[in-house]
Amino acid sequence: MSKHSTFKSNRHKLPTNKHITCKDYQSMTPLTRIAQWVQNTPSLFKHNAPVWQASPVQNVQMDWPESYQGNPRLGFVYQYIFSQLFSQANNYQLLAEEIQLNQNGKTLGAIDFIVNNLALNQVEHWEIAIKFYLLHEERWYGPSAHDRLDLKLARMLEHQLNMSTSDAFQQAYPQWENISKHLLMQGRLYTNPFANYPIPTTCLAETLCQSRIKGYWCYQHQQHLIEEPLFSLVKHQWITGLETFQTPAEPVSSSHARHYQTATGTFWFIVPDHWPQESG
User: Fold this and answer.
1) Chain segment 166-178, per-residue pLDDT in tens
2) Which pLDDT does position 25 carry in this prediction?
3) 207 vs 108, 182, 203, 267, CA distance in Å?
4) Which has fewest Cβ within 10 Å: 64, 169, 180, 209?
5) What stretches of the chain show up as alpha helix (H) in DSSP?
6) C-beta of residue 162 within 8 angstroms of C-beta of residue 108
């Protein structure tokens, strides 16, 4: 069983959502900040059904816990946020989540969400993901380099979304035969300003949302070229950034990618010099 994590709120930066005052933002818990980000941030891709550019749930106001106590992996935090938003949204009814599918003794996987779109009277299958990818030689790699955007997108489109039309699903849930499929992948894309890589405009057949190419990365031996102090981020801060900027991080030699932010809001990944060939 994975260990649990707790994070609590402090003071926060000025919000980008014009409907939220600075005073409101300063009183937000981390979960509230993440929920606001999820509802207002475009996905990594332009809209091209079943790929969606905007979050299906927006303008949901609810009280969030002061702290999160659960699996600290970002995917679990992200899933929890969406579960709560679907549950509270006026235009959706949450029917099921994390449906485990098995066929002939083999595990097919888990469906993220089944919801009823009340405005359309349509049952929808949603697969969601939050990802951070670094551009290297025209491919987008995860910080650990075991993950790649093209591979993740292909699996979501070709396997995960198709689970709701599989025989195993249709036999178990015949009432949801006429289900529609939807994919949302949020996150951030990072480029190396010290390398001359052309920036792709597409991944597979999907058009990248250029506004999400807004972070930077570099190798450890290039870190001295960064002109601003860096501040370390813990995992849940990867999504929304730091609440306050206190002590800058010292340059370190690490076998793992490390995530930072500058006081002006720029996100940076510093990766080992052998990345992406070998990465932990």
Assistant:
1) 999 999 999 999 9
2) 45
3) 28, 16, 6, 23
4) 180
5) 22-26, 30-40, 74-88, 149-155, 167-172, 237-240
6) no
